[in-house]
C-alpha cells in the first residue's frame, strides 16, 4: 500500500513539474474572467491582465507583474521580466489599455472577436512555457 502511495506522489510531482502542468491558478483566473461562455472578449482579456495590477491604477508595472506572477505560481518565474517586456507592445514600461488591444489581436487567432480557451492556452504556452 505504501508503494502505491509513493508511486502516486511521484506521478503527481512529475505532472506538476511538466511545462504547462500545475496550472490550477491559471484555470481559476481564466474561468473567473471568461465566465460561462468559456471565451474572453477584449474587455474580459483586459480585466485578466489587470489581475496583475496590485495598485489598482489601471496599469501593470514590471514590478507588479513580476510579483503577481510569482504569487500565482505561474511557470518560469525567473523569466517574468522578459514576459513583461514581450507583452508591453507600446514599450512604455507598463501594461495598460494601450497594450491590451495589441495582445488581444495576437491571441484571437481566428479573428472572431473572442479568445477561446484553446487560443488562450496555446498562446499562454507559446509565450510563457
From TrEMBL:
Residues 1-17 form the signal peptide. InterPro entries: EF-hand-dom_pair, EF_Hand_1_Ca_BS, EF_hand_dom. Pfam families: EF-hand_8. Residues 40-75 form the EF-hand domain. One of its GO terms (molecular function) is calcium ion binding. Keywords: Calcium, Signal. This is EF-hand domain-containing protein. It comes from Lymnaea stagnalis (Great pond snail). The lineage of its organism: Eukaryota, Metazoa, Spiralia, Lophotrochozoa, Mollusca.
